[in-house]
Amino acid sequence: MFLPLALLALGFSGAIEVCVAAPSSTIHSVHDVHERRAAEPFGWSLSHRPDADKRLPLRIGLKQQNLDNLESLLLSVSHPDSPQYGRHWTPQQVVDAFAPKEESVGKVLEWLKDSGFSREKIKMSANKGWLQVEASIAEVERLLNAEYHVYKHDESGEEQLSCHDYSVPADIREHIDLIKPTVHFNHRPSPKSTTKFKRAGDLGKPSSTTGPKKSPNASPVPPTLANCDKMITLDCLKALYDVPGFHAVSTHKNSYGIVEFTPQAFLAGDLDLFFANFSPSLVGVRPKTILIDGAVVQTTNQSFDFNGESDLDLEYAMALTNPQTITLLQTGDLVEGAGFDNWLDAVDGSFCTFEGGDDPTQDGIYPDALPGGFKGKSHEFRDESTITASSAMRQCTEYGKLGLMGSTILYSSGDNGVAGNGGVCLNSTGQPVKNGTMFNPDFPATCPFITAVGATQVNPNSTVFEPEGACEQVIFSGGGWSNIFAIPDYQRTAVSSFLKNHPPPYTSAQFNNSGTSRAYPDLAANGANYVIGIDGEFELVFGTSCSSPVVGSFITMVNDARLAAGKGPVGFINPVIYSDKFKNAFNDITSGGNQGCNTPGFTATDGWDPVTGLGTPNVSKLIPIFLSLP
């Protein structure tokens, strides 16, 4: 996950006492179901009922204002033809524009008061988006007409708390987006389980058959273009994407942030091993590290599962953008780890008084009461099928706000083709099952306010001077259509053209073929055979997690050039890259597919496609076109 621009705050700093006067008390009798679990836990078994007195810090996400205008507001500062292009918002402007109505705050406070919660037990976030209620499980069950159970993972033995559904008074529903922790189940083990990284699939895995054979002394790998179909290095990437000679000059203004989730962490020796061979001036250089939610850059556990992702991200991002400082946003403690919500809490608030952890079943609540957990206050790849629509939309909204403030957010599109994480597909009711036949879109890649990055490869026995194909070695580029998000305006023409001229051989029984939903990925870059320094030796890795930091590095180069010219950062890039101005700035990928769910998947073809998006960047063309914008 990558934040290749400024780290800006939305004001979700320390909790503040609620100061809104509630209307007079009324009786709330009729309750309606507000959310149901998106999918039943796959690989988890019902264990037992939790202790009724267990503390459950309830967080109520209030309905925000002006969200129906978010896309148009974001387009106004992101579309190249807009007179407002590049006029990004301040954090306070964002807070003021989207804060819930006072009526919503008052109504929900009234409901809580009538349900027996004193004002001392209720706090509000500084951006007014969340109410926190200190309550026991028994109190929460009464409040929400819910029943909580503890589930145990069949392999790791880890436990999670969740309810199947919850209800709120009919007159309150319109004022609430979602309530956590409730139905939002983490369908995979938490980051403290090493199996998570083996299953996540974002990085792929070392290749024991094609990987470079290394002695215990880790002999150098020569940087050459001769073997780029077998080993991708910095020189291969620069040749593939016509990267001009680069030396960052706006480093004090520019920022490239990379998020890692504990216990995944880089090893300093691995960085130096890589740099010594491919970028000698970086030997001894480290990223600027910000620790979020009790995070540590742990070195006790060393293996591909613990170090692969972080080593990959930092080795290539630092080397490609040198001497730009890379900011490492290490997130989560060693006990509960972390997730997307923790990171969003961090960038949505001041880094001095973070409050993160919206979802303890996914992200951990701080202070962490578990042995060894972080005791301080919180510093501020899943599939669509395993997240509720309300939760997905709430998270996606935050990415849109960051775009308004000038940040570019990149996510890998997934490594399982048209299937979800772990190659899981869906049944006819949209539930993840073994041998499912319905395609399973990745989230947050389907969020229309982020840039989803797919994967390509140098085809076997080809050179970097020949067209790449969609990645079909070890991993398959994630792509398809969302079952949650509507199609954004910026991609209507490109997606409509694909569906008209290259209609997929599938029906609505396999994917959302309505033509009215968000399609992904947006673009792609090489994701096969990357040489990385890992645990003291060189190995090969595969995945869209290779592609994403590379594209992030290219956007950092673009921002460096714009800042040097006295212009602002590019921010949300999707409306720009889909525009006619940029149609020649990408290498169209026209071969390969993204098989999954026992099908060949989709096929890369002329123009945008749901395998490699618009294609791969040509950096020498991208920079001057971006420089031509205001």
From TrEMBL:
Binds 1 Ca(2+) ion per subunit. Residues 183-222 are annotated as: Disordered. Ca(2+) binds at D588, I589, G607, D609. Residues 185-198 have a biased composition (Basic residues). GO terms for cellular component: extracellular region. This is Peptidase S53 domain-containing protein. The lineage of its organism: Eukaryota, Fungi, Dikarya, Basidiomycota, Agaricomycotina. The keyword Transcription does not apply. The keyword ATP-binding does not apply. It comes from the Eukaryota. Residues 206-218 have a biased composition (Polar residues). CDD domains: Peptidases_S53 (cd04056), Pro-peptidase_S53 (cd11377).
